[in-house]
Amino acid sequence: MALNNFLILSAFLFCTGIYGVLARKNAVLVLMSIELMLNAVNINLVAYSAFHKAVAGQVFALFLITIAAAEVGIGLAIVLLIYRNSHTVDLDDADQLKG
Amino acid sequence: MVAQNVAFWILAIAMAGAAIGVVRSQNVVHAALYLVVVLAGAAAQFILLAAEFVAWVQVLIYIGAIVILFLFGIMLTRAPMRPEGSMDNSQRLAAAVVSLFLFGVITALFVDAYGGKEIKLSDDLVLIGRSSNIASSIFRDYLVPFEVVSMLLLAALVGAVVIARRD
Amino acid sequence: MLNYGWIIPAIPAVSFLLILFFGKRMPKKGAEIGIVALSASFILACVAVYQWIDRVESATGGHASGLRALGRGVFGAEGAGHGEAVVTPVIHHFTWWQNGGIEFGVGIRMDGLAVMMLFVVTLISLLVHIYSTAYLENDIRYTHYFAMLSLFTAAMLTLVVADNTLQLLLGWEGVGLCSFALIGHWWEEGANSRAALKAFLTTRTGDIGLMIGIIILFFAVGSFDIGRSNLYALTPNADHGMLLAASACLFIGIIGKSGQFPLHTWLPDAMAGPTPVSALIHAATMVVAGVYLGARLYPVFFNGFSIGHGGVNFMVLIGGITIIIGALLAFVQDDIKKVLAYSTISQLGYMVMALGSGAWVAAVFHLFTHAFFKALLFLGAGSVSHSGSHHSFDMKKDMGGLRKYMPITFWTFMIGTLALAGIFPFAGFWSKDEILVTAGRSGYDIFLVVGLVGAFLTAAYMTRCVYLTFFGEYRGHGHPEESPRVITGPLIVLSVFSIGAGVLAWSAWPFHLEKFKEWVEPRVSFPVVVHPGFDYSKAAISLAVATLGIGIAAFFWFKREEIGALKGLTQRNKVAHAGYTFLVNKYYLDALYENVIIASIKGGIANAAYWVNQHVIDGVVNGAGRGAKIAGKFTYEKLDQRGVDGVVNGVAEITGESGGLLRYLQSGRVQRYALLLFGAVGLLSLFLLLANS
Fold first, then answer.
1. Fewer beta carbons within 10 angstroms: which end of chain A, N or C?
2. Looking at the whole model, is its pTM more than 0.80?
3. Inter-chain residue contact B124 with A53, CB threshold 8 Å
């Protein structure tokens, strides 16, 4: 299997995730796109680990999964709080930092 | 090698389609389900790469917990199933441009750097991916990061509770 | 005293200050300070004279003058010109300031000429001081008068002993100032102050030439020192052009100060001052300052005007003209002082003519003798006015027949007249005769004739003056009587000198003395001049001419009543009347100066200058002002308000606008920021990729 296949696949997933982060209105959907990106990174890491026959990549991927989980938890908590305060999770409405 | 390649390509196309579905779907729940497909595909890719422990952890944590969390989030925030407008904001086009541009750059980079490199499947590769090997690596070489991540999880837990509780 | 000669001018200067500060409180109102000071100066001057004579005699080894007088003709000896020992002047100099090759200082240069002048000035000043105590009794500015007399004497003595032209100029200006102050002593009368101003301004006109001449001489010589100037003028390759220019300019100063034609007009008007002042300043001392200058810097004039070559030069020409015009004008004056004033002008013309024809010793000796008898004549006129004509000077109206009432005044006046006319053996004979002879021998023959004519005229007008004053019947209103001793004393002293001064140059048989020349003529830095011996034929001719003058005038005046044809001639005959009017109006020179020259300057040039000032200069100034205003307005409006403020405001506006534009970046929308973030990341990675590939 060509290494590049996995790498380009992960690049594709990553860029799709970027599109989702930038283009989606709903905060939860943005979080989902972030998960896409993290997964892309995971695939990247494991591919490298297989290529170099090093276990570090896989360990790193495990940690990443853990961190992703924590991050989703906090993120959703924040989204909940925003929803509770302004009754919307539309990110276009969250422009209080407007200059 | 042929079987792995075929498997890879089927999985890759499925994942790519599902990813596009995540970001382009107008239904929030559909987007979540597409995400499940992506995650599952990722797990399958891990197995292809002989990283069995990571694959099963992926299924367990990601599909098993995180997606459920997302569904809870969708429910609790009363995300509209079928919205009046679109689910995308006004900068779709710019976002598409940027992401395509980035894709191009990264791809060029990979092709330039790793063009022609192969992953050789062998027995010792399988041995690397075994749970025992990973476990021993974590608890020997990466013990401190393991503890730190535990702390992180604790902090995240406490933090989520504090942020989201009603008072 | 030769080494400390500066004391002689210093004493009157101190006396001036003392009189100014303390004079009013003294019993004699300051006169005693002046008299004491002048006596001291006179005694010291005598000491200086004695010391100088001693110096000369010891250098030349005794009396050998008799041999020298024989068979003297024109000769051109080398060196000092006499072949005997050189007698250098005594020079002391104090440098006040020097910088860059120019040196200013004061000093004394004591030689025969200087000590002679010291003697004359101090003696006559002393006599005038004594005389003035009676003449100006109860005058309203008695103290001030004596103060100015002291200051005048100090200035004149400074001029006399000066060893550099700047100090000489200082003294020159000082005597001019004092002359102004003293002529205008009774300034309450408008005519007196006008006369004072006229005197000052006319001499000032000459002083322009003097100052320019001093400067030109400085540039030629490189120093202000008189000795060095003379030395330079005698070097064979001296710049003749510069010497000519310097002597011409200096001579203009002499013309102004010594009353030569055409700047003589101030002297008659100066008679408005008190008579002792006229005697001191305008007869004996100040007016001869010009002649003194010519004698001091004689090599400059000698080589500048090429006097040694005979013919005509500027100096001798002006002198000759002055002799004649002065003498002619003296005939038509009614005021006795004016007669004497014109006589002074004429005699100064003799001195200048003598200098111009190479007769240095003759000129200086004439200066010496003239001082005595002219001062005598003036003081005599003052005596007449004081006691005879009730303070009037008009001969025709208030005098006449005074010899009966004022014998001493009459006889001293007669002595003075005979001396002036040049009758043997009075002083004037020797001095005037020497002038004529030297002029004839040096190649200035025509001026010999002029001198003889002048002698004739002098004798004639003086006879007229004597007749009108002392003979005939008394026409005045007062009670004539002899003047007090204080007045007649000086007259007697001066008459002694008028008789005896000639002895010093009695070069005829049997004495063959030439003491004056021996003592006074410079032995260093002096050009080769002609020293003719005593010429009996010329002496006889001049004596005859003078006697003829006296005789004709006496005949005319004494016998006028009897010869009816001559009486009132100038009234009846048209030609005579025209000539008379011409003379009475002083050749219309005053009219020329005042109405033509001054008025045209006042009218034309002054108006033109005013126009230039208002339109051109003020125009330039106003234009500059307007230009500045316009520039200012432009700068304010265009550069400041629009330019600079524009830049400043523009910067602020750009900042505002860009802020306003950049504000849109701060949309508050996170996804916008993320877009920019990823966009930037993409670009950077592209650059890195390209850079490293």
1. C
2. no
3. yes
